[in-house]
Design a protein that fits this description.
The chain is of the alpha/beta class and about 350 residues long. It has two domains: about 160 residues, no CATH class; about 190 residues, 3-Layer(aba) Sandwich (Rossmann fold), CATH 3.40.50.150. The chain is built from 16 helices and seven strands. The protein binds S-adenosylmethionine.
């Protein structure tokens, strides 16, 4: 398919913005000795990107990720408003301008930094556990992990500055703060517990806590990882119980004071979200609470994440309220909160 002139111009403007992204990245890297692009100097990369064949321009579009360009350029690109919710990347795929091979080729342009799990963004692209948002990348974000290979370390310092990473770290603190507001001996159902860093930190920081957790987690490696962290921790007696189950096959009659799920529901379409929410409503005690985390569409790192094929269903406050309504929950029992970046929202549902 041929690109039309206005789209072509649009890509050109994105390219210019990409070049300014490169400059920003370069200045971010200035203090470090290693090259920002291990396989290619930025100057060389700029030159090659300036060549104007269709494929290159399409590929260049991806470099807008840090610059919120998608949001600012929708009108100029002539996309209609209903489709605004999609990212340009998805849009281009639908239009047939872009194939997965293009993205992969583009990823290669970044050289090793995108193709090795030594860097955090490479880890996101390579997906050593077979899916996005696994326990290991989440824990690397929680712990501000930096690669031991100094050639790549700047990429990781850069990665941790992303709003999405800050939001993930904030949600750990959000969970710990929430636990502090509860009684000392409540029971919690944690849906998709991942690395368990949040619970372990809480129990270490609150050694007198009597809280018990039931953790439903699909990935046995995540459970092993959590158990390992637990063994290495200072927690003497643990009340963390692991249930290795797919959430879709997990049902229980047990009641909980708190049901918590972060980093799971934003992978689900609305229908699935509603089905699961309805299922777990019955498990909240009369004075209990259910809290679901979901990323907001204003997430500035959205395009960057999608560059690594990390797709989420971003939802606004209104979207979350609608989903709660669809489960028969009244406004008085709904509250929406957020961590300080405003990227990770939390849908709070109470029974009374
Ligand atoms: C992004 S992590 C979030 C982990 C944790 N809640 C946190 O915030 O640190 C998502 C986790 O969901 C788990 N998961 C994904 N699909 C699942 C499913 N269908 N049932 C249970 N767990 C699932 C993954 O294995 C992964 O550990």
């Amino acid at each position: 398919m041929e690109l039309n002139v206005s789209l072509f111009k649009f890509y050109q403007s994105l390219c210019n913005s990409f070049l300014s992204f490169l400059q920003k990245y370069q200045s971010f890297c200035k203090t470090n000795q290693s090259s920002p692009f291990p396989n290619q100097s930025p100057q060389k990369l700029n030159q090659s990107l300036r060549k104007t064949n269709r494929k290159q321009w399409v590929l260049i579009v991806f470099y807008d990720f840090q610059l919120k360009l998608l949001k600012n350029n929708w009108k100029r690109a002539g996309f209609n408003k209903q489709r605004k919710g999609n990212t340009l990347q998805r849009e281009l795929r639908t239009e047939g301008f872009l194939k997965n091979e293009d993205v992969i080729e583009f990823q290669k342009r970044f050289g090793e930094a995108m193709l090795t799990s030594k860097t955090l963004q490479g880890f996101c692209c390579v997906k050593p556990h077979g899916y996005s948002g696994d326990f290991e990348i989440i824990d690397k974000i929680y712990t501000n992990s930096i690669t031991e290979d100094s050639k790549f370390s700047k990429w990781d310092y850069f990665f941790h500055t992303l709003a999405a990473c800050k939001a993930v770290r904030n949600r750990k603190d959000y969970f710990k703060q929430l636990l502090k507001t509860k009684a000392n001996d409540i029971n919690i159902l944690n849906l998709a517990s991942g690395p368990c860093r949040d619970m372990i930190e809480y129990l270490e920081e609150n050694p007198k806590s009597e809280i018990s957790f039931d953790c439903v987690e699909l990935d046995t490696n995540a459970i092993e990882y959590g158990k390992n962290l637990l063994n290495k921790s200072t927690i003497k007696q643990t009340k963390i119980n692991f249930i290795n189950k797919n959430i879709f096959k997990f049902d229980t009659s047990k009641e909980y004071d708190l049901i918590w799920s972060a980093g799971l529901f934003d992978y689900f379409e609305d229908k699935v979200f509603i089905r699961l929410l309805k299922r777990f409503l019955k498990n909240i005690r009369t004075d209990g609470e259910l809290v679901i985390g979901n990323f907001h569409p204003k997430n500035p790192s959205k395009a960057y994440m999608e560059f690594g094929f990390w797709y989420l269903n971003h939802r606004t406050e209104e979207d979350l309220i609608k989903l709660a309504h669809a489960c028969g929950i009244e406004d008085k029992n709904i509250d929406i909160k957020s961590e300080s970046e405003g990227v990770n929202l939390f849908l709070h549902i109470s029974k009374t």
